[in-house]
Amino acid sequence: MRGARRHERRDGDRDGGLTLIELVVAMAIFALVAVMGLQALTGAMRMRDRLIQIDTDTAELGLALSLLRADLGAVVPLLFHAPGAPPRSALDLDATGRVLGLSLAGQPALPPVPGPGLQRAEWRLEAGQLSRRVWPALYPAAAGDVAPGVVMLRGVRGWGLRSHWAKIGWVGGVASGELDSAPEPSGGDSDAGLASVPESYSSVLPEAVELTLDTERFGRIVLLESLK
Predict the structure, then answer these.
(1) Quick one: 146 exposed, middle or buried, by C-beta within 10 A (0-12, 13-18, 19+)?
(2) Residue pLDDT, tens place only, 115-173
(3) What is the greatest pairwise CA distance in the chain?
(4) CA 175/CA 79 separation, integer angstroms
(5) Residue-by-residue DSSP string for 107-137
(6) Across-strand partners of 143?
(7) Which among 209, 196, 189, 185 is positioned nearest to 101, based on CA atoms?
(8) Taking the C-alpha atoms of 100, 105, 109 and 110 in order, what is their torsion angle to the nearest 10 degrees?
(9) Cα–Cα distance between 182 and 13 in angstroms, integer?
(10) Which residues contact 166 (CB under 8 A, 6 or more apart)?
């Protein structure tokens, strides 16, 4: 009888709770699971932020390229008369090679100047940013008519422009100067002979334009647009 009672007490002592070693092991396993869960959550949040950034970058790139293509495809051989400045060619790259101007038609008229949809778009590359601003007419009355520039694409390290001319082929730029020289047939509309296109002459456009963008995030991007 006494032996049985002593045996029951021993069984009760063994089932009374966890030992210190068992408690430490359980806490270690819990901490390991918590760390693994935190790492998985952190990785998922980083992946989400990365996907959001990629989506934003590609949306910005798509919009900029779409506008560039639309502008290049809408160029017309009409001069642009900026306030207090000589007339500019329909397709013009300034002496610094940083501002590309395009005379456009077929675009919606912008306030405050109603008109037949003739506009001047200016693309400017400055401090790694490609921005666009629009004059609502090719004969603006005042400098205040131009809309503020809007940054269209960031991370642009540089750009290059070439134009293709009948019987000449590809040449650098689109107008006069080292960066923007383009040949023109001499003797009126004759194809014989070549001369430098005057800055104010816009009755002839190249057959095609190639614009190359050197970007930090997307590498080299080439846009080829036919003007004929």
Answers:
(1) middle
(2) 557 889 999 999 999 999 998 888 876 778 888 899 999 999 999 999 988 888 888 88
(3) 132
(4) 13
(5) SPP-TTS--SS-EEEEEEEETTEEEEEEESS
(6) none
(7) 209
(8) 0
(9) 100
(10) 191, 207
